[in-house]
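Researcher: Please generate the 3D structure of the following complex. Treat every line as part of one assembly.
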Amino acid sequence: MSMLTTENLHLYYGQKEALKGIDLAFEAQTMTALVGPSGCGKSTLLRCFNRMNDQVSNAKITGSIWFDRENVNGPAISLVTLRQKIGMVFQQPNPFPFSVYDNVAYGLRLAHSLPKAVIDERVETALKQAAVWDEVKDHLTENAMGFSGGQQQRICIARLLAVLPKVILLDEPTSALDPISSAKIEATLMQLKRDYTIIIVTHNLQQAARISDRTVFMLDGNVIESGPTQTLFMTPENQQTSDYLNGKFG
Amino acid sequence: MTPTRLDKVATKVIEVFVACVVLILLFLLSTILIQGVPHLSWHFLTSPSQSFAAGGGIVDQLFNSLYLLVLTLLISLPLAIGSAVYLNEYASDNWLTGLLRTAIEVLSSLPSVVVGLFGYLLFVIHFHFGFSILSGAIALTFFNLPLLTRSIEGALAAISDTQREAGLALGLSAWRTIRGVILPAALPGIVTGVILSAGRVFGEAAALIYTAGQSAPVVNYTNWNPLSSDSFLNPMRPAETLAVHIWKVNTEGVTPDAVSISAGASAVLIIVILLFNFLARLIGRHLYRKMTGNSNK
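Model: Done. Output below.
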């Protein structure tokens, strides 16, 4: 079953066309990697799903994105609900300048009025899901900014898991981290893809090959090829895909 | 001249300039403190001023300065936070925000005596506020608002956009993100800006001569009803501040000890402003540490 589908999605920054008609379907409980050279539009595409491109004043979007039988680009959509269901993790870990506990509980408290015991439980569950519980459980009242980059990134993952999303978008989540922290994030994502639909933008082809089930190769605002990661890496159909994977450009 | 030699000469010249600035400051501070501190005493700080006899103190003026400062901040802080949030978080770069910024710059460069006379004509005369703490506080707001707005805007601009993205991506509205994340994160910078502007307000005289007045009527420090005419909290009473007192004692003072009163009052003024500055750094640093928590790892 497709969790997220795009139909003839175009995005323009002023005169420049950054996405040139994207038709893709993202399967539930699957991790899809978006790869391609810098400027190919993969991050722009990712930011379409939770409407983060709204912040860019000259961006104009046409086409549809279907999620839960609703058009994400439609006028009736509630951005608050949408962004709770489709969470995002950024390149730079960006915990709020609060305690670990408050970071994870913040979105939760605003979304629903829940008794303290339920919030406590959800915070714990989210931190466990993000595989950072053991490291922070004795430091829940300490400021999240004081932890290492990898821990901060996993706290950010816990923060979005706490509001019970269906889709997790990750925009190069490990490119600002050291290899050990990156490996921990990857292990966390491998666990999470059993329950969530994950879309990850990455520059790191080995990472895409290691952890994703499906891969989408983009070039210059177009999807060149998409399919199961194994197939795409081993037997790419398109010459450009093959050239990129073999390091001939990008 | 060889490049290395030129570099040495340039460095020396710059060092001389810096030394000039520091020396001027040290000279001013030490003169004021050396001349003023010997006149300070508990009696001086706690007794009312005298018009003709010697031995007057500055208790009313000191209180008036502080009270005026509090009222000014009460009026100007919400306005400044509001405009700074608008300028930094909501406004896009267009002619309107350009106009706003220009207005703020012009307002900040208005001579304070002009602000004072304007306040005199509008509030004291036209609105019948009279010479009062309220008139003074509004005039000082005019004077304080641009600087405060700019410093708060600076504090907000220093917060990384990744924080705003984090809030939005979590489904928070723009306002929730600002109130819950950006403002708390900017708090150390905001507090520093407020305290520094408080120092300027505390030392202001020209804008107050025509608005808060030059007389310090006897007030009752035990009357807590702000509506009562002799209450120390009554905002409609005239109130000579410390800075205005220094000016008045020097221009028309007839007490035999006018010189020592002026010197002592100046020392108190400088000491309080220095305290504000140190406090600003201390609190700012403390809050910054608390907000960014470098407590472990």
